Amino acid sequence: MNLTPDQTVFWSRGFITINLTIVTSWGIMLFMVIGAKLVTRKLKTTHKISRWQCMLEMIVTGIKDQIQEVGLENPGEYIGFIGTLFLFIAMCNFWIILPWYEPPTGSLSTTAALAIAVFLAVPFFGIQKSGFLAYLKTYVKPTFIMLPFNIISELSRTLALAIRLFGNIMSGGMIIAILLSISPLFIPIVMKALGLLTGMVQAYIFSILATVYIAAAVQESIKKKKLIHQKTN
Amino acid sequence: MQINWFTVVAQILNFLILVWLMKKYLYKPILQAIDEREKKIAAELADAKSKVAKAKIEQDEFQKKNDAFDQHKKKMMDGVTGDAEKERQKLLDAAKTEAAAVKHKLEEASKELQESLNEQFLQKTQEEVLSITKKALSELASTNLEEQTVHVFIRNIKAISAKDKKQFTDAFHAGSALSIKSAFELPEKEQKSIKTAIAEVLGPDIKYAFETDPKMVSGIELVTKGYKLSWSFAAYISSLEKSMASSAKEPLKAVKK
Fold first, then answer.
1. What Å distances lie between residue B126 and A196, B80, B118, B180, CA to CA?
2. Is residue B40 part of a domain?
3. Residue B75 C-beta-side C-alpha neighbours within 13 Å
4. Distance, CA of B237 to CA of B231 (rounded, Å)
């Protein structure tokens, strides 16, 4: 029994390895892009819209509202990253309803990749908003002593992100696999439903934490801008 | 639980590509569509608001006009009603006057008819009485009615009172001719008797003018200026007429009661 889909290798040459994780991710990406393209091909701006457009609008506006609720003032700038994060994880976890499907999020490589993406996105948005030096200064706040703790915090939360998602999804898959060997009827269905719920919750947790981290980085610059604005007035 | 670093790098790349693709094919068009719809709805709402405001103004204006129209209508209606009442009263008065005139005319016509009938009746009665009297007198006294009439007329002349005689004389002297009317043509003998009787009162040299008036039925009438002496059945028949007229009115009175 494979613990992760990384272990299912289709093609390998030296460092390069094409495994099930990558192939499944491509499949999900293809599905998402084609689906989005098909629905947005005939978008209507009138009062009457198609069901698919309505569904996508609900998802997009839902994500946008969530980002705004966390504290990011202009959600349009972050929806590309955070929204895709949520939708990708949700899609990866959604298809566990299919038999023999192994979610890419059940691979530590994928969750680590996503956590690294968040780890990189936080300074990216922070620097974009307040500048390189101003962002770096946030690591030495409130005092210089806090620098190592802040760095440890950054790394540990990234690690936590990766491990949390991987642990939840992998454990779900493991439980289903074990239960299938013990009791192949009915019980795995219930567990799959539970796994689906867990998967959606994890997608939400992952993306909302990413939003919170980005918001924390961006808030510093916003606070600074507000202070400068008040002083000039 | 191993990490495949190639998979990590590949997944990071995959994810970044997906972010770019989703931005292009999902978020951008969807958010754009939502924005456009919101703008459209906002425009429609603004338009609706302006239309409502416009409608309110128009409604107020219409209400004002309606009120003014109602007042004007009421005023006109009052005026027209007053005029109509006046006109009705006028027409009513005219109709009453006309009705009164017609009634009066009808009464006049009725009266005339009654009088005409009475006259005809009287005429007929006189003729009948005369005819009966003539026949009776001729059968009873062997003389005709004319002779008797002349005799009675002469007797009346002779029996004239002093006062009447004076009046007669004065009237005769004022005029020139003495007119004697009779219902029939008087024979020479009777004319002579009358002349003699008059000469006894007025004296000789009198111009006589004998005339015949069939309307008189029977009798003789002496006329000079301002004086008239006569004898005829008319007096009796007039009394009969009055008696008959009063008896003719009796049933009418009874009906009126």
1. 145, 66, 12, 20
2. no
3. 6
4. 12
Q: What is the pLDDT averaged over residues A174-194? A: 82
Q: What is the pLDDT of residue B123?
A: 77
Task: Tell me if A87 sits within 8 A of A32, measured CB to CB.
Answer: yes
Alpha carbon of A143: minimum distance to chain B alpha carbons (Å)? 34
**Phi and psi for A99 in degrees, rounded to 5?**
-70, 150
A&B contacts, CB < 8 Å: 125
In angstroms, rounded to a whole number, what is the distance separating the alpha carbons of residues B219 and B234? 8
What stretches of A131-186 show up as alpha helix (H) in DSSP?
132-137, 147-182
In DSSP notation, A57-99 reads: HHHHHHHHHHHHHHT-S-HHHHHHHHHHHHHHHHHHHHGGGST
Beta-carbon separation of A15 and B4 below 8 A: no
pLDDT in tens, B38-93: 899 999 999 999 999 999 999 999 999 999 999 999 999 999 999 999 999 999 99
User: What domain count does chain B have?
Assistant: 1
CATH number at residue B247: 3.30.360
Asked whether residue B174 is assigned to any structural domain, the reply reads yes
Q: Please give the C-alpha separations between residue A131 and each of A116, A120, A135, A220, B157, in angstroms, as whole numbers.
A: 21, 15, 6, 11, 169
In chain B, DSSP finds a helix count (H) and a strand count (E) of 6, 4
Q: Work out the average pLDDT over A185-211.
A: 89
ipTM field: 0.90
Range of the domain at B156: 144-256
B18 in a structural domain: no
- Tell me which H or E stretch contains A20: helix A20-41
Give the amino acid at A220.
Answer: E
Cα dihedral across residues B127, B129, B135, B141: positive or negative: negative
pLDDT-derived band at B27, boundaries 50, 70, 90:
very high
Residue B223's SS3 state is strand
Average of per-residue pLDDT across A30-38: 94
Closest residue in chain B to residue A29, using alpha carbons only = B18
Both tokens assigned to B108 = 């006049």
Where along chain A do its domains lie? 5-232
Q: Which of B1, B11, B13 should we substitute to test contact with A (largest number of A Cβ atoms within 10 Å)?
A: B11
Instruction: Confirm whether B25 is domain-assigned.
Output: no
Euclidean distance between CA atoms A93 and A105, whole angstroms: 7
d(CA A121, CA B19): 12
Q: Which residues of A touch B29 (CB under 8 A)?
A: 40, 43
**B12, A15: Cβ pair inside 8 Å?**
no
Q: Which residue has the higher pLDDT, B225 or A71?
A: A71
For chain B, helix, strand, coil in percent to 5 are 80, 10, 10
Longest distance between any two alpha carbons in chain B, whole Å:
194
